[in-house]
Amino acid sequence: MLFVASLMLGEPFVGINRLPHAFTSEGEVEHAVVALLRAPRAVLAVVAGALLGVVGLMLRESLRNPLAVPEMLGVSSGASAAVAACVAWGVQVPGAPLVPALLGAAVGGALTMFAIRGASSSAAVLLVGAAVSAALHALMLTALSLSDSREQGVLVRYLLGSLAGATWETVAVMAPGLVVGIPLVVLTIPALGLLRLGDDTAATLGGAPARARAVILAVACALTAVVVGPCGPVAWTGFLAPELARRICPQGTQRAWLGWSAALGALLVVTADLLARTLLHPVELPVGGLTAVVAICVGALLLVRR
């Protein structure tokens, strides 16, 4: 329903009875608005939210910490730093900001994976990831302070997470990552179950918890890079979706939680993007800002209920 609503609502409003015609009537205003602007944006919101929800659950289970979120991997900070550096220093990169964001995300994830080589515990991995993220975030702030004031608006919108300007080409860029990433997520499910038992128990059963955790983190870094490249850091979706999934299905398996996390992450980002477009029209709010506010409110509510 929310996906259909995201195709209908906005300026101009397109009634549900007009949606089939809007997709087939090339050259008309409704076709441009629905098929070329709103539809790819809605698909991007679904994919981004689902991936962030899945990554959040993978991190939560592998590190055994509900605050282990994609923002702690250095991937989001790496993408942000790369985009900010290109803008601040006038580096001309084809396909900007998408290409530099993907490259920065890959570098940030690689730095995190390199830094955790000697980390033997989940707490150490989380602290190393936070340190890498903080260092890249500082680099991003430095570049932002050096950028021209006329460019800061576009840059800040990306850094806060935005789906504005999404096209079918943007969705297509994510396709290779999905084709490779989704099977890898399925293959990590046994490792997630092993790590959930704790490192000592996993080692007693003949597993290699450090190696399993490194593989899961590598897959999580890759999926996060797929999202932050075109969307920017859509904050705290990876915290809220798994938290709600665990509460909806408290006795579920990793497979069930992955499904719920993907569905709830998609629901959260689609809702946030719809509100970002319509709440203060014609002013567009940052999607990442809305998801962060919702996550903070829900997290506070859950804390109070405990």
UniProtKB/TrEMBL annotation:
Keywords, alphabetical: Cell membrane, Membrane, Transmembrane, Transmembrane helix, Transport
GO molecular function: transmembrane transporter activity
Membrane topology field: Multi-pass membrane protein
Superkingdom per UniProt: Bacteria
Principal location class: membrane
GO biological process, one term: siderophore-iron import into cell
Location(s), subcellular: Cell membrane
GO cellular component, one term: plasma membrane
TM helices/strands, residue ranges: 42-60, 72-91, 97-116, 123-146, 166-195, 215-236, 256-276, 283-304
Pfam families: FecCD
Gene3D superfamilies membership: ABC transporter involved in vitamin B12 uptake, BtuC
Keyword Membrane: yes
UniProt record similarity statement: Belongs to the binding-protein-dependent transport system permease family. FecCD subfamily.
Full protein name: Iron ABC transporter permease
Organism the protein comes from: Saccharopolyspora elongata
